[in-house]
Design brief:
Elements (H helix, E strand, L loop, with lengths): L2 H38 L13 E2 L2 H5 L21 E9 L5 E5 L7 E7 L4 E7 L8 E6 L11 E5 L4 E9 L6 H9 L2 E4 L3
Length: 194
Amino acid sequence: MPMGYEHLLIFSGICIATWLLVIYLVPRLMLSIYKRAALSQGFGDGPIPVNTLYTQPQNLFRDPLTPLPPGSSKLMNVGTNRDTLYVVGWLDLSRGSQVLHVPDMAGRYYSVQFTDPSKNINFAYVGKRATGTYAGDYLITGPGWKGAVPQGMKQISSPNNAVLVVGRVFVENDNDLSTAYNLAKQIQLSPLNQ
């Protein structure tokens, strides 16, 4: 084999390896940055504790370009939908299982997605298309959880103890914002033992 082709093969191998690393690592890196920002700075109202949900404020939804207080993050503004309020949180199921409560949405579109940050995949949904719009309680359990699911609850088994939760509640128009916000605030987490 001529000398020039050997270098081309080595360079091609390095390019392919680099490309695979970028595809594999960049999504995980972005989730890690998002997690750190949410847990340390929050979205304008201070840090978001683990195993709690944060609801996007009404004023931030109305005017996403409004300057936030110094030191706060605009994570909730970047790329947001203009017809859904966000509810976000980070779960640590090694501390125990969590119960997600959703109110009766009376036919309104909403969704709550559960993402495994280690693989960057959504593993479960609660919402109009997946579970309907009636009020409900969902037991979120980590890997290897053993126990009985309380009566009236449905189990969501997570493949990982770390879970990113992203909820969305549809806002029909400006007059509907208060109603949608009140419903979004009722999407809550609590420990199983409460």
